Amino acid sequence: MKRFVLFIGVLCTVNAAFGQQGKIDSLKIALKETSTMKEKLSVLESLNNILLGEHSLEASLPYFFEMATIAKELNNTKLETQAYRNISEAYMKQMDSTKSIAFAKKALAINDENNIKIDYLLDFNQLGRVYHHFQYYKKAIETYNKGISKYNRLNDEESLSILSLIYSNSSSSYQKLGNTEESINAILKGIEIAEISNDTKQKCYGMYALAYKYMDLKNYKKAEEYFLKSLTISDSVSFDNYKYMNHHGLGINYSKWGKFDKALYHNSLALDYFRRQGDKLYEFDVLNNTAVLYQRMDEPDSIIKYGKKALKIAKEIKHKLAINGANLTLSRAYIRLNQFNKAEETLLEVAKDTINPKVIDRNSKASIYLSLSEVYEGQKKFGQSLAFHKKYSKLSDSIEKEALDSKLLEVESKYQNEQKEKENLQLKSEKAEQEKLLAYHTKRNWQLGGGLATTVAGLGIFFIAYRKNQKQKKEIELQKNKVELLQKELHHRLKNNLAFIDVFISLAKGKYTDPSYRERLNELQNRIKSMFEIHEQLFRKEDITSVNAKNYISKLAENVKSAYANPNISIEHHIDASAELDSQTSFPMGIIINEFVTNSYKYAFNPDQQGLIKIELNGPPEHYRLKLSDNGKGFSTNFDMNSSNTFGLDSIKLLTQEYNGTFSLSGDQGVTLEVTLPKPATL
To answer: Which one-letter DSSP state was computed for residue 680?
Structure first.
């Protein structure tokens, strides 16, 4: 046995410099040299861990099956189920959904029967990945959630690490179903758990996944930020695979962003690494994305060069999805070069798979129909071109309708849930008030009706009454704390919902290039952010009845300042640091400030003028007095406040009226707005 261990050690040392293939060859030699089943299993474990990352898995399957057989004979459940997960992975890459699902379930059943909890979580993760790969997204989410539900019995670092991975993987399935909110929640939860367990690898992966989410939302700056954060972590702890996954992600991000030189640089780093590792699937992906990059650069010859390299790799690993992806990329280059016959041949080859939704999804099918329409138009076969364009339009409309229906259902569900929460909160609040009132009357009745009895009973009865009164006070305090906790939870939920609305608006901005449209969306985002800040500050405070005026108003002004980024304009605040705004009045005041500051940035100043906006808050005890002013151009001579119908001014009028306040507006030297709003009687 010692000789065997020494032999393995020497082989690993000698071949360390020869890359993955050298290690594989050494372990295969060691496998032949072993004399016992236990030694074989040890070598197979090391060998299969490397083969699993190779992605040319057809040749690896015999070793996976051999490991499963020996592990079963030796009653080594851990390595037996690990082998089944490897087999599931191999069949997944070969697009055999039946066998891939069957072996993932086999591992799951064994670990469930033997109550092996850590591997049980790994099995849920594998089965969820398989379902996702074959586009059974709802089943994938159900599977991931079953794994998550087992977590309440596990709190060690290893299980936390797997749980973080499951959350991150479930994010992709939620996104495929159009549920962006749950997708983002899942990523953030994965990162949160990785922070708790101090799992550097999962923190790295979580930020990597979040970067892709921002890329999907076309927020390429944020995507770059999180790719670089993930890259910094992976580089500092020598996670080479994650490091070059981030280079690969940066290449895609810069390509979509239009920063082509940076994209080519990161692609070259990733391609060199994955080639050295023998990771064929990632090598394919980098090559194909480089071809797409050249498509954006309008260099069809380079598209074909890299597209053919990608297609060659895809055929080597017999990956149907990869083959179709490379062919679609090539077809676009052939169309660009007016090589319509080659494009038609390539597209019709891919189109054979459109009957199988697990190989060609609906978006890819729509792209094929559109490309074929362009091909037949180029060949002057207008009838066929029209037929495929009709297919494209019908399918595209269906996809958009499903996405819209899904969003409407999601919004309706959220609305209903929020309404129920508000009703429950109101009922709990009323119950607490009733109990408080009952306690008060009980105390009064005892005081008024106890006269003679109190005198006779003396201190003994008084002591009993005192204890009873203290108990009632404690119960009232508990009810009050519960109501406050529920109110804080409601503010937290509303804050999160507003944050996700902000994400959806960012997504909409990414789809439109019209500056006026994007400006309107920016304004809408700032209005939403003014409401977000209220709930953010109320959630973080012990006292949920008010917010700090200076912090709240400063944040609102900063949001508008960031949106317009004009260095010539500055904002001054004249607000007492200890001033508080009641939660009810903070809402209209936030909207009014947002509208005024936005209008000042947009209209008040000439391009090179040094502008100043002032915000002042003071007033007598019973009122808030808000004064907003700028030193800009002021109003034109024919401006009539009463007949003006601008959205911002209408909003200010409406809110002031709704909250029983007053306002005045002047525009002789710049614009000055003064608003008074009454304070609630309880303050």
So the answer is: P
Contact 97, 134 (CB under 8 A): yes
At 640 the three-state DSSP class reads coil
The angle at the Cα of 173, spanning 172 to 174, to the nearest 5 degrees, equals 90
Confidence class for position 104, pLDDT limits 50, 70, 90: very high
Q: Residue 152 has what pLDDT?
A: 56
CA 583/CA 206 separation, integer angstroms: 36
Residues 6 or more apart whose Cβ sits within 8 Å of residue 291: 302, 303, 304, 305, 306, 307, 310, 326, 329, 330, 333
- The one-letter code for the residue type at 458 is G
Amino acid code (one letter) for 337: L
Q: Which two tokens stand for residue 287?
A: 């090559």
In three state form, how does the secondary structure of 45-111 look?
Answer: HHHHHHHCCCCCCCCCHHHHHHHHHHHHHCCCHHHHHHHHHHHHHHHHHCCCHHHHHHHHHHHHHHH
Q: Give one DSSP letter per residue of 324-371, joined into a string.
A: HHHHHHHHHHHHHTT-HHHHHHHHHHHHGGGG-TTTS-HHHHHHHHHH
- Coil/strand/helix, residue 361: coil
For 277-313, how does the pLDDT look when each residue is reduced to its tens digit (9 = 90+)?
777 888 899 999 999 999 889 888 898 999 999 999 8
- Report strand pairing: 611-618 vs 623-630: antiparallel
State the Cα–Cα distance between residues 328 and 289, nearest whole angstrom: 12
CB count in 10 Å sphere of residue 80: 23
Tokens at 600, concatenated: 């000042």
Whole-angstrom distance, CA of residue 421 vs CA of residue 496: 15
